[in-house]
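hey can u check if this looks right to u? its 162 residues, i copy pasted from the old doc so theres a chance i mangled smth
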Amino acid sequence: MYCPFCRNPDSRVVDSRLADDGSSIRRRRQCTECGRRFSTVETASLSVTKRSGVAEPFSRSKVISGVRKACQGRPVTDDDLAMLAQEVEESIRASGAAEIDANDVGLAILAPLQRLDLVAYLRFASVYQAFESLDDFEKSIHELRRECPGGRPAPPDQPQDK
């Protein structure tokens, strides 16, 4: 890490603290040359590999914008979407992989979205899983009815009856 004041390549860590709910570390550093202090933030990188082979950093905002389209006209708040994106990121990071396929991000979205709103889940799944006919919708609706009797998903803290 170069000192932002004198560009010296050497510094020592004076203090380290968790930041952003433990997803990053804030370090207070002191330059060994000029003695000035500065802060750095370290995060574990997570890359998403697209179908084209291009890798880009994981973005919660992309998850939110993709899911927001499925939630149009549904009683889903921005806070709900932020929580869903956080849950998706946490589940992906829990896998321990530094690089993940975009397809796996979509799979990680499906379960939390199903718990959030069944209609939005069906919309997202129809695009993500490339439904081609009404039979695909009927099959998915049948699965949802079997998993969620009464049309309501089980609350996240309670197991679903099967």
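The CA atoms of residues 6 and 84 lie 43 Å apart.
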